[in-house]
Structures are given as structure tokens and as C-alpha cells.
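Exercise 7b. C-alpha cells:
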């Protein structure tokens, strides 16, 4: 029969074994007591950065190769930190195997970061590649937006499908370079294979790009206007195709500087050159402003514009005018006053022939059953055959003819200064005298033409 120890016997044996173990010396008895456990520290003052720019803490440890220990596998370190040290070893030196393992792991991680061989290194490369790709996509889409906006072309069509012939100019311009450009070709393949939901080709993205460009242009224009000495602001409201008023803002400023343009080139050739405003240009501005100085002047040149538009709108109408008038009616420019004398000259010397051309055009409109043209022609005939309009023709031609003669001399490179001074003085005298006696002479000339055409005063 097997003898089994009682519980009391087992407890006595266990107590005796524990008492024997407690009599053994501690592990610190076998270590060098001259090396304190707290001397092994880690520094927080030294930092490294990985290839992505992330700030990493360096262990800052300097391993002491001269330290002596009674333990064959001991680890003795010493820190170069002086502030805020972190305890690398615990107070119990018996934990040194764990500390060795942690130090080895830190060293492996540090080497991996330095060699760009961490676990997420491949993911970081893919992330960087995608970032560069989408930045290139946005640059090309922005260029397409600039191209269409600069030419005032519509962006969208009747649908937004890739490859459709009616998807609009924006998607059409995108598809064309996608055949040759690697970036846009990759984006097109991703869209066709449904590998991406974000492609930045939607209507909302187009509107956002247009708004960003508009804000940048507005900021640049305002900056330019603030630097200019003279500027003006013009607001214009025009209905669009949807019959809604669209307001446009026109900023005009004088940007004559010594940095760009002709003035800068002249200063490069001769730094001592003095800038003098162009006299011919100043004379141009005087006449342009004079043509817009009163309601009668605006109405007069407005009728001339209607007359030119009426005849130039179709080749048959222009042939009717050429068959009656030896010289053609010239278009009017809002900025070049010289065009105004070419505008007035046919009416001054060929008014009878122009009225005959209008009569023939009215008959032609009735034959074509064009009521709008016939009504327009009749209203012009009735307005031209009035005394105020006839008198305006004489006055404006006399003034413009004299100033045009002075302007031609100012533009001539062979005219001497004494001749120019004499001509400008003569023009100034003419304007003063015309104010006193010129209207009487114009009245006489207009009366002769009115009697010939049967126009009543």
C-alpha cells in the first residue's frame, strides 16, 4: 500500500524549502556595487528624422566598453543627457535581460528608419507617388480651364460622359491630350476601369476652378489699380442667352511705368531721357471725349453707326451702297478719333447719294419681304433728312478736318519743331474763331445742301 503524505507534512516541507532559499544571497551580491543601476539613462534631447520628415527620438546612449562587471552578460550604459533623463534600467538589476532585448529592438528600428526599410516604407512610397500624380492632374486641369476661359469658350455640353461627342469643350480638351500625355492617360484609364471615384472633372470642380481663377485675377487687377495714378471703373449690364442681366466690371488705369514697355527700352538706351506724354495721343483723347460730351453728339455718331451696320450686314446691301457712293462708309472706333472724320466725310460730300442708296435698300427690303430692314431704313432716312442732323454734319467735319491735319503733322517723322508749333497754334486759333464765327458759316453751308435736297429747317 502506497504511503501518502499528509497535508501537514507537505506544508512543513514547503516551509523548510522556502527558508533554505531565503538564506541564499541576492543577485546584487554578484554584481559590481561601484556601478549604480540609475547611471544607465536615455536622452530626450537628441532627435532624428525619417525620410518623410517625421521627428524621431534618439536613444542618445553611449555604451561604455571599459566598464568592468562580475556578470558575463551585463549591460552598462551611460547617458549624455543632463536634463529630463528617462530611466533605462529599473532599480532591480535582475531585469537586465529584458533591457538588453529592448535595446536591441530599438537599434533594429533605428537602422530600418535610416535605411528606409520600415514596415510601412512601401506604403509611404505609394502615398508619395499618388500625391505627385494628383498634383500633376490638377495642374493640367487648371491649364485646360485657363485655355477655355481666355478664349471665352463654353465648358459643358449636353452630357458629361467620357468619350461622348457632345460632352462639351472641357472634357473634349481633356480627352485629346490624354492620348499622348502619360498623366492624363492614366487618369482616363482609371475612370474607364472604375478604379477611382475622384477625377476632378465634374461640373462642381470646373466652377470651383473658375472661381479661384476669378479671385486671383480680381486681386491682381485691384493691386494694379491701386498702384496706378489715374483709373476709372465702368459697370456694364448685358442680358445673356437666358435673358438675365449679367454685370461686368471694367477697370481702366494708366500703367505707364519705367519698368516695361517702350519707356523702359528708351531708358535702357539713354538713362537720362525725359518722359513726355504723346501730344497726338492727348489730342486723340480730347476728340473722343468731345464726341461723348453731349446728347446731340452721342445721337449723331449713333446714327452713323446704325448706317454703317445696316449696309455692312450683308454683301447685297454693301453692293447697293457701292453702286451709289464713290467712297465707302468707314466703321467708327471709340478710341481712335481719326476714324470719326472718315465716318463723317461720306455724309459731308455724298449725302444725296447715300439717301439714294437708302431708298434702293428700302425697295430691296420690300421685295424680300423684310419688314425689320425696311422699317430701319425708313427711320434712318427720316432722321438724316432733318435740319439738326445736316447742321451737325457740317460742324463736325470742319472741326475734325482741322484737327486731323495737325495730327498728321505730329505723327510725321520729318516735320520740324517750328512747323509743329506753328500748326498747333493755328489749330488753337481756328477753334477759338470757329466758336465765334464758325457756326454762322456752317449754317450757310447747311442751308445750301438743304435747299438741294429739299430739307426744311
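Sequence design result:
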Amino acid at each position: 500500500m502506497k504511503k501518502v503524505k499528509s497535508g501537514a507534512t507537505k506544508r512543513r516541507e514547503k516551509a523548510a524549502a522556502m527558508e533554505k532559499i531565503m538564506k541564499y544571497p541576492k543577485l546584487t551580491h554578484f554584481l559590481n556595487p561601484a556601478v549604480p543601476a540609475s547611471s544607465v539613462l536615455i536622452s530626450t534631447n537628441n532627435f532624428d528624422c525619417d525620410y518623410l520628415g517625421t521627428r524621431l527620438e534618439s536613444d542618445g546612449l553611449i555604451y561604455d566598453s571599459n566598464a568592468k562587471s562580475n556578470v558575463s552578460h551585463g549591460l552598462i550604459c551611460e547617458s549624455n543627457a543632463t536634463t529630463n533623463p528617462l530611466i533605462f534600467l529599473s532599480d532591480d538589476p535582475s531585469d537586465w535581460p529584458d533591457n538588453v532585448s529592448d535595446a536591441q529592438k530599438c537599434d533594429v528600428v533605428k537602422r530600418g528608419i535610416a535605411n528606409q526599410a520600415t514596415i510601412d516604407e512601401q506604403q509611404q512610397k505609394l502615398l508619395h507617388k499618388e500625391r505627385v500624380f494628383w498634383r500633376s492632374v490638377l495642374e493640367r486641369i487648371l491649364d485646360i480651364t485657363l485655355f477655355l476661359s481666355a478664349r471665352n469658350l463654353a465648358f459643358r455640353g449636353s452630357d458629361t460622359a467620357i468619350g461622348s461627342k457632345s460632352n462639351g469643350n472641357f472634357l473634349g480638351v481633356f480627352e485629346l491630350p490624354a492620348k499622348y500625355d502619360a498623366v492624363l492617360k492614366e487618369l482616363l484609364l482609371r475612370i474607364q476601369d472604375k478604379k477611382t471615384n475622384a477625377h476632378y472633372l465634374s461640373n462642381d470642380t470646373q466652377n470651383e476652378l473658375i472661381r479661384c481663377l476669378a479671385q486671383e485675377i480680381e486681386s491682381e487687377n485691384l493691386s494694379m489699380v491701386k498702384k496706378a495714378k489715374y483709373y476709372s471703373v465702368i459697370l456694364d449690364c448685358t442680358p445673356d442667352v437666358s435673358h438675365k442681366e449679367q454685370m461686368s466690371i471694367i477697370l481702366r488705369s494708366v500703367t505707364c511705368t519705367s519698368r516695361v514697355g517702350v519707356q523702359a527700352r528708351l531708358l535702357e538706351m539713354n538713362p537720362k531721357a525725359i518722359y513726355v506724354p504723346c501730344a497726338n495721343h492727348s489730342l486723340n483723347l480730347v476728340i473722343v471725349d468731345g464726341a461723348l460730351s453731349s446728347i446731340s453728339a452721342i445721337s449723331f455718331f449713333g446714327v452713323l453707326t446704325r448706317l454703317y451696320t445696316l449696309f455692312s450686314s450683308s454683301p447685297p446691301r454693301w453692293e447697293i451702297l457701292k453702286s451709289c457712293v464713290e467712297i465707302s462708309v468707314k466703321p467708327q472706333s471709340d478710341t481712335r478719333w481719326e476714324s470719326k472724320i472718315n465716318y463723317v466725310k461720306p455724309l459731308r460730300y455724298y449725302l444725296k447719294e447715300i439717301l439714294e442708296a437708302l431708298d434702293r435698300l428700302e425697295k430691296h427690303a420690300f421685295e424680300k419681304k423684310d419688314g425689320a430692314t425696311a422699317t430701319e431704313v425708313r427711320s434712318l432716312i427720316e432722321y438724316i433728312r432733318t435740319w439738326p442732323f445736316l447742321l451737325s454734319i457740317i460742324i463736325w467735319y470742319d472741326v475734325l478736318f482741322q484737327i486731323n491735319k495737325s495730327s498728321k503733322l505730329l505723327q510725321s517723322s520729318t516735320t520740324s519743331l517750328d512747323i509743329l508749333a506753328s500748326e498747333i497754334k493755328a489749330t488753337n486759333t481756328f477753334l477759338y474763331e470757329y466758336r465765334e464765327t464758325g457756326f454762322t458759316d456752317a449754317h450757310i453751308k447747311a442751308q445750301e445742301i438743304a435747299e438741294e435736297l429739299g430739307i426744311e429747317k
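Instructor comment: The mean pLDDT is 76. The longest strand covers residues 231-239.
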